[in-house]
Amino acid sequence: MTNIKIVCPTCKNKGQLNVVEDIMKNITRGLLAINVAAGTICSHNFFVYVDKNYDIRDYFVADFKVEVPEKRIDKNSLKSMKMLDKEIVDMDLIRLFLPATTLTFILKSITSKKKVALISNQDFLRDHIINFIQYITQNSFKADVILISDEDYSKNRKKYNKEYMVFKETKIINNFDKLIDAKKLKIEEQLVNRFLKNTELALSYILLKNDITIAYELCKDIIEIVQNHSGDVKLGKKELIEAIEKKEGFKISFVYLEFLLDIIKNYFEFNLSSVSDYFIPGLGL
Question: Which of 18, 42, 101, 260 has its CA 20 to 30 A from that of 155?
Answer without folding.
Answer: 101
